[in-house]
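Researcher: Final request for today, and then I'll write up notes for the group meeting. The sequence and the SMILES for zinc ion follow.
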Amino acid sequence: MLDYEIIKKMPKIELHCHLDGSLRYNSVIEEAKKQNIDLKLTENEIKEKLIAPKECESLDRYLESFELPLKVMQTSDSLKRFTYEVFEDSYKEGIVYMELRFAPVLHMDNGMTMKEIIRAVIEGMKNAEKKYGIYGNIILCCMKNYDEKYAIETIEAGKDYLGKGVVGIDLAGPELEGFSKKFKNSIRLAKNYGYYITIHAGEAASGNNVYESIKLLGAQRIGHGVRTFESSKAYNAIKNKEVFLEVCPSSNIQTKAVKNLKTHPFIDYYKDDIHMSFNTDNRTVSDTTLSKEIFLAGSIIGLSLDDYKKMYYNTVGASFALESTKNKLLNKMELFYKNLKGGIFYE
Ligand SMILES: [Zn+2]
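Model: Predicted protein-zinc ion complex:
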């Protein structure tokens, strides 16, 4: 079993983290002042609003915790700052590679174009990469509750940045039964342009959504996929290693996708050798870190260091990083392992 102190020091990879759910409270307060936005809340109330209740009534209540952060994320400078800070926080807890996701359409209130928005987030990430040597990539989210034309707009806007910071497309937001059909054309367009595809599915709705995300949208990874077991076809695709699961333990309890961690289906998936990684989903909204998530989930399945190494290797394989970056990430783990076996921690 992995000790929390070792987990904090291990090289880690985060594939599923939302920018707007991962802001520092103090930065939200500072940005509101700087931008002359009256949030009509005390500082304590702001903190409370940014964290969703430990158990929300639903995914929809959980999503309400994103309204406040979005108010202060409508300028290029604030996007750069918040992105930089998420990467900085991640680096400080031993993350060596992170795919950060966000929905450009949610940042257009002050008139920024999608391209300006995407450029600001890439710049924030590049600044952190330069300072800390962490590697990063951006996944653009299209919102399931918006018309498909916004998804197409997002895909078109991000196209020029593919390979320059942007790697993937995601569908996020409230999950309705059968949502994949609505986005068939847009996600096909994204695939043709060369985006990698990851889709939120099987979180608030059925395993059939996981199946349709794979079948109709060509998802290479599934965000959550809690209810994959409900669809034997979806389960087989994941079992055959065609598709990788991004598991977000604490978030799933908060949104009531599962009752508690002990009954989370990921335990059976893991035992059945399904490839997955653990993720925060939202660092602030879920009040968590990746080290905490690995500790929580790892404790339940009795994750050993060798198990973790295997999971890390699979995660590198499922990441949307360049081959050259993947090799560097593998080397980081080898170095850690070598030093650990010699009794010295790599810092
Ligand atoms: Zn998510």
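Model: The chain has one domain: 4-341. The radius of gyration is 19 Å.
Researcher: Thanks, that's everything.
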